[in-house]
Amino acid sequence: MTQKGSRLGSGGFISFNGSWRVQGILAMSRSLGDYPLKNLNVVIPDPDILTFDLDKLQPEFMILASDGLWDAFSNEEAVRFIKERLDEPHFGAKSIVLQSFYRGCPDNITVMVVKFKSSSKTEDQ
Questions:
Q1: Residue-wise burial string across 62-79, b where 16 or more C-beta atoms lie within 10 A, e elsewhere
Q2: Roughly what angle, to the nearest 10 degrees, separates helices 75-83 and 93-102?
Q3: For the chain, which end, N or C, has fewer CB atoms within 10 Å of the first or last residue's CB respectively?
Q4: Has residue 3 got a pLDDT over 90?
C-alpha cells in the first residue's frame, strides 16, 4: 500500500480561513492541480511516498476520505468508529459520513472503507 501527499515549497504557507488553505486562497484538497502555485514553487507536485507491507501489517481495513471527514474526526476516532461498525452495510462508511455531518462539518464529506480479507494465518489462530 502506498500513501501520497503534496508538499509546500519555500515561501509557501497554510492558513485556516473557514478551511485550510494554501497561500490563504486555495483549499488544501485542490492544491495538487494548481499550476500557478506550482510554477511559483509554492506547491511542490512531487509526492511523499510511504510503502507498507500489507502481508506484514495485516490491516483490518483502510479509510479513504475527503477532508470533510478529517475536519470532524481525528485518525484515532475514525478508526475506533469504523471498527465498531465493520459489520454494517458499506462497512460503516455511511454512518461516519452522517456523524461528521451531525458534528457540524461544513465541507463535503466522502468516505470509502476498504475491508481487507483475513489472512489464513489470522484465521488459524
A1: ebebbbbbbbbbeeeebe
A2: 130
A3: C
A4: no
CB of 91 closer than 8 Å to CB of 44: no
Query: Can you name the residues that pair with 2 across neighbouring β-strands?
Result: 51
Where are any strands of DSSP class E within the chain? 2-8, 14-16, 20-22, 26-27, 43-51, 61-65, 111-115
Which residues is 62 bridged to in the sheet? 114
* Grid cell digits, residue 14: 497554510
Secondary element (H or E) of residue 124: helix 120-124
Please state, in angstroms and as integers, the Cα–Cα distance from residue 21 to each residue in 14, 18, 26, 118, following that order: 5, 9, 5, 39
Q: 109, 69 in Cβ contact below 8 A? A: yes
pLDDT band, residue 108 (cuts 50/70/90): confident
pLDDT digits (tens, 9 = 90+) for 82-94: 999 999 999 999 9
Q: What is the pTM of this model?
A: 0.62
Does residue 45 carry a pLDDT above 80? no
Q: What's the length of the chain?
A: 125
pLDDT at 122: 46
